Amino acid sequence: MFKKIQTEIDHFQSQTRNFRILIFTNLVYALVLPVIDIFVAAYIMRNSNDTSKVVIYQLAIYTGIPLTFLLNGFLLKHFNIRKLYSTGMMLSGVAMIIMMSFKILDLTGIGIAGITMGMSFGLYWSNRDYLALAITNDKNRNYYYGLETFFYTIIAIVIPATIGWFIQSKTGDAEKHDAYIIITGIVFLITIVASIVCFRGKFENPVQKQYIFFKFHPLWYKLLSLATFKGLAQGFLVTAPAMLIFKLLGEEGALGNAQSIGAVLAAIVIYLIGRFSKPSDRIKIFAVGLILFALGACLNGFFYNKTGVIIFLLLLLIAKPLMDLAYFPIQLRVIDIVSHIEKRGEFTYILNHEAGLYVGRLCGAGTFLVLYYTLSEDFALRYAIGIIALLQLCSIYISKKIIAEGNILSPEKEEPKFIDPKILDHVAEHIV
C-alpha cells in the first residue's frame, strides 16, 4: 500500500513546477467552493424561504461571469495573470461579505451579491482555464483533472459536514446568522492563502492581445453546442441540491451529511480513472457521467422524497466529476487544434466558450423559473432537473463527432512520410 502511495507521489513530483503550483492553488481555494456553492444558497433559503430567489441569485452570477471574462481579456494586457487570478479568488469572499451585510435580503441585494460573485468566478475561471491549458498537454490532462477532482471530492466530504454541524450547533436565528458571518470571515482568509500560493508559480500571460472574433472553424461551433448543453445543467444544478435538501431533508446539518454520502469512494474512483485512463477513453467516461446524472435526476422526480434526494446526491457525487473529467480535456484539445488552424491565441477560445455556457445557463435557469411561476415550486424542483438531464444525453453524440473530427484535424498527427526522390532514382537505375 505504502509503495503504491509513494509511486503516486513520485508521479506527481515528476510533473512541472507550474503544474504542481496550480494544483496546490486550486486545492486551497477548493476549501471555499462548497461554502459558495451550497451554503450561500442555504443562507438565501433560510432568510427568504423562496427557491426562486436562489435561482435569480444564480442568474446574477451567470450574468457577471461572461462580462468579467470579457473584461479579463482587456486586463491581461496590463496586469500579470497571477494578480487577476488571485483577485478572482479573493473577490468571492467579498461577495459573501456583501450578502451578509444586507439586513433584508431583497432582489436588489441578491442581484448585487450575485453580480459580484459572478465577477469573482469570471476572473477565477477565465485565468484558471488558460493556465490549465498552458501547463498541461493532451497526455496528462486526464491526470490533472482527475487529481484536482479527487481533492475537490474529498473536501466535499469534510467541509459541508463541518459547516453544517457548526451552523446546527447554534440556537436561534441570530446565532445562526452570526455563524454564517464567521464562516464568511474564514472564507476570506482562505482566499488570501490561495492567492499567496498562486504567486509562487511562474505563470505567463497569453501572447496574443486580440481576443474577440466572430467567425470560427466548424469544429469550434460543435464544441459551443456541447458547451450549451453543459450550461443547461449549470443553470441551477449548483444550487438545486441545496434547495432539495432544505425542502425535503431539513436543516443545514442534513445538508452536510447528505453531501458526504459516498464521497470517499467517488474520490478514489475518479482519481484512478484520471490517473490510468487514456485520451481515447473520454467518450466512455463522459457517457457514464451523463447517464448516472440522468438516472439520479429521474429517480428524484419519481420519488420526490428523502430517499429520492439522497439517491440523486449519491449519483451526482459520481456523475459530476466524471462529466468534468472528460469535458475539460475535450475542450482544451479542441482549443489546441483550432488555435493551431486559425493562428489565434488560446484565450480567444476560452473567452468565446463562455458564451456557449451562458446560453445554456440561461435556458436551464429559465426552465426552472418558468415551471416555478406557471405551475408550482414543487413541480419545478421535481421535474426541471430530470428534463435537463435527459436533454444533456445529446452531449454523447456531439462529443463523439467532436473527437472524430478532432482526430482528423489534429496538428500532432504524423506528417506523410515521403521517400527521398534520390533513392527512387537509384532504385530505378538498378531495375533498368
From TrEMBL:
Domain of life: Bacteria
Residue runs in coiled coils: none
Naturally occurring in which organism (per UniProt): Flavobacterium aquariorum
Membrane-spanning ranges: 21-44, 56-76, 83-102, 108-125, 145-167, 179-199, 219-242, 254-273, 285-303, 309-328, 349-373, 379-398
Keyword Hydrolase: no
Keyword Membrane found: yes
UniProt cross-references to Pfam families, sorted A to Z: MFS_1
Keyword annotations of the record: Membrane, Transmembrane, Transmembrane helix
Protein name: MFS transporter
Gene Ontology MF terms: transmembrane transporter activity
